[in-house]
Amino acid sequence: MTAGKHDNVTQQYDIETLGVRAGVHRTPFGEHAEALFLTSSFVFENAAQAAARFAGEDEGFVYSRYTNPTVQAFEERLAALEGAECAVATSSGMAAILGCVMGLMKAGEHIVVSRSVFGATMQLFNNLLARFGIETTYVSPTDPDEWAAAVRPNTRLFFAETPSNPVMEIVDIGALGEIARRCGAKLVVDNCFCSPAIQRPIDLGADIVIHSATKYLDGQGRVMGGAVLGERAVVKDPLTTFLRNAGATLSPFNAWVVLKGLETLKIRMDAQSATAAALATWLEAHPSVRRVHYPGLASHPQHALAMRQQRTGGAIVSFEVEGGREAAWKVVDATRMISITANLGDTKSTITHPASTTHGRLKPEARAASGIGEGLLRVSVGLESVGDLQGDLARGLS
Ligand SMILES: *Cc1c(COP(=O)(O)O)cnc(C)c1O
């Protein structure tokens, strides 16, 4: 590959620029758009070069389970956007979380996890990693003292999501990062709900960032993907070894789709956030709505903290309707446009009833403790007009 004038666009550029320019390495053909390298292996000039590649003495590509030029372009662009030294791409968001734990922890060690994390994350810790000797303690996302009290001599990682799903609790990233550092642990933040266009956890004090690229990074509901980001010395070798040997590699095609998704990340997040804010304000004034959970509203209990960490309130709004499950299902079933699906981060708005879907397997007491009532609905706001979204929700709320 030749180094062209647009190669290696670095972090001195603004986020809009990095989204379209970072990670570009043109081939001698001089293609303008990023190339898609659909190849499982790479050829060597001779036996000596093959040996040097396998020994790690020559940086070139070997086999796409290890890495691939298109995957690397995605890693460089996402790292630039997050302000991270390095990114390692994975086949999904869950593979990123698994890889982070497999790469950085061993049997007999301990992780402190926010009680408000993605359902599959909780299942991963409770049902799979527990069998391999990883000990987990769950604590409140909003009380840093609980995190400090949960630390043991064998604690390696803190793991949090902010804002949390589905009731939008905010984790104080700076406070947790400080507690983690004092204890010799690393703070991992799953930045799926915000993306780097809204929140950059490393700037705020996190050590490691996790992404489900399936959500806002692709942003159009097409492919699965994930990534782990952080300092090279912390993330690169453990995650690369995990991928080489465990195979949870991002496919070049998916990497290319997400790489192109990153080009519109900032404008999508700005537009979707603005619509979400308008929708949240409208819902808060609606007589059938008991409560709205949106970090951008002054009524959010952690509004000030959220606005210190995030550029906007984000594009996800949850709200409680009067009348419990029956009333909530009526709102879902009365929609004609908004998609009834559990996915989020799409340009198409989606609606979910968490108590009977994503959080349906939790015991009712656990749901209550997490604030997930029977009347709660979550809307992931897309790029449709505010008026059309209001019209679609108003039908079931009346
Ligand atoms: C979807 C999601 C994940 C898992 O990502 P996949 O790409 O579906 O594996 C992890 N964390 C959060 C917050 C998510 O929303």
Provide structural commentary:
It is a single chain. With 398 residues, this protein is of the alpha/beta class. It has two domains: 248 residues, Type I PLP-dependent aspartate aminotransferase-like (Major domain) (Aspartate Aminotransferase, domain 2, 3-Layer(aba) Sandwich); 133 residues, Alpha-Beta Complex (Aspartate Aminotransferase, domain 1), CATH 3.90.1150.10. The protein has a seven-stranded mixed beta sheet, with helices on both faces. The chain is globular. The chain binds pyridoxal-5'-phosphate. The site of pyridoxal-5'-phosphate has 15 residues, from helix 4 and helix 5.
Secondary-structure topology with pairs:
Elements: H1 15-21, H2 47-55, H3 69-82, E1 86-90, H4 93-104, E2 110-114, H5 119-128, E3 135-139, H6 144-150, E4 155-161, H7 173-182, E5 186-190, H8 201-204, E6 208-212, E7 226-230, H9 232-246, H10 252-263, H11 265-284, E8 289-293, H12 303-309, E9 316-321, H13 324-334, E10 339-340, E11 350-352, H14 364-369, E12 376-380, H15 386-397
Parallel strand pairs: 2-3, 2-4, 4-5, 5-6, 10-11
Antiparallel strand pairs: 1-7, 6-7, 8-9, 9-12, 11-12
Helix pairs in contact: 1-3, 3-10, 4-9, 13-15
The structure holds pyridoxal-5'-phosphate.
Pyridoxal-5'-phosphate (PLP) is lined by residues 92-94, 118, 120-121, 161, 165, 190, 192, 212, 214-215, 224, 226.
